[in-house]
Amino acid sequence: MRLKEVHDFHCPRWDDLPDKPIFNKNVVVFINKALSTIIHEENRLTTNMVQNYSKWRYIPEINGRKYDRIHVAYLIVISVYKQVLNIKDVKEGTRVILGHMDEAKAYDLFAEALERALKRAFTHAGQENHYEIEGFKATGDHAAIELVSNAFAMKLLSEIVIDSGGYEYLGGD
Known about the structure:
The protein is an all-alpha fold. It has helices spanning about 1-5, 25-35, 45-55, 70-80, 85-100, 105-120, 145-165; strands spanning about 20-25, 65. The chain is built from 7 helices and 2 strands, in the order αβααβαααα.
């Protein structure tokens, strides 16, 4: 069932991302497969989006026609966070975070925060005739990562509830 799949979602870590440069089409396939559990098909990444994000400097400049690990990381973050923020805020938030840590650490913090948020939002979903979510604390240099990850998780749960015809139709896992 979809609730369990989302609850158990694993976001690829920095070391899981392609370590050799890949073409645009391969980037799109990799990211859409990695995020298929949490991103609706109509919101999935396209080759045109990747080209535009590159042209508009939302991702670091590419060398030639291939994308490196850093580009894949940026595009995963953009794919998730643009569901709840406008793209300019995603870019600015990324700039702020990267002022405090390197890209690999920032990306792994994103992946961990996203998984925590999804687990928190989906732990009790569909189990009772009411919904509870445990609190969380967002502090320090990466508070924004926690906040946006939780906003995304709650938005995704809301979409699933609506698609199911209401909370009472979610059913347990």
